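seq:
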Amino acid sequence: MHYKLILLTLIFCSFTGKNTTTNMDTVRLCYENAASKKMYAEKLKTLTASNSSDALIMAYHGASFAFLAKHHWNPYSKYSLVQDGLVYLNKAASAAPNDVEVRFVRFSIEENLPLIISFTSHVESDKNFVISNLNISHPYYATIRAYMLNSSNVSEDDKKKIR
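struct:
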């Protein structure tokens, strides 16, 4: 059964049709799996490379670099990839400071960076923004909500606000 789920996910991730909703669904699916599988991080980078003017796509592109860093063995390359990813994430957040999903993507990446990397200055502000502005009508609401409820950076009081 497990292999069928993987196969279905791969087929879905490989589809890059013209439908924007489908493309975002594919981007999001790859994002959700990129931390555990390098191929998803690579696919996320490929899917988001061509449309750097859209802030949300730019945020996911930045996330792809961070995920690729996780899968890389060379410390210098890891650090360089993280830096590149954070440049995209910060540009995206500057371009669309009121976009909950952009701020969520940056939050989720920054909160998972090792403490020795000092580029996590937005964790608190992004967390607060997402909690204050997450709306049930958002197409990625369930995933964002679930992530925030499991985050160690979100207090129990804040978790009550998003339940």
